[in-house]
């Protein structure tokens, strides 16, 4: 959401405008802070520490934060399970991701559909937002 261009910029703008309620958990916030602080990411997108802090504060203030029990184990990549559990605990309608493992894993999609959650790409989520 720090990329000032394309789908990430449109997603952030929609979030800032309150077009949707995001659901997040502490482990995801921690992972986000860690990933954004990596030199490779900071250099690629020209991100400063202030940019990272601003985004994290925005998310903490506007997103619904849910607690996780760590009892979901459906993803090939164990680290992705926290995203699935967050979507379920937050009663999300969509799990928006750029992760191909999650988008194309029929087992994950089927599992989430039992909870009313659809896995979509950022572009598909934005297209859905534009229709409503």
From TrEMBL:
Pfam name, any one: PIN_3
InterPro entries cross-referenced by the UniProt entry: PIN-like_dom_sf, PIN_dom, PIN_toxin-like
Highest taxon, organism lineage: Bacteria
Domain PIN: 4-99
PANTHER family given in the database record: SSL7007 PROTEIN
Protein's UniProt name: Putative toxin-antitoxin system toxin component, PIN family
The species this protein was found in: Candidatus Brocadia carolinensis
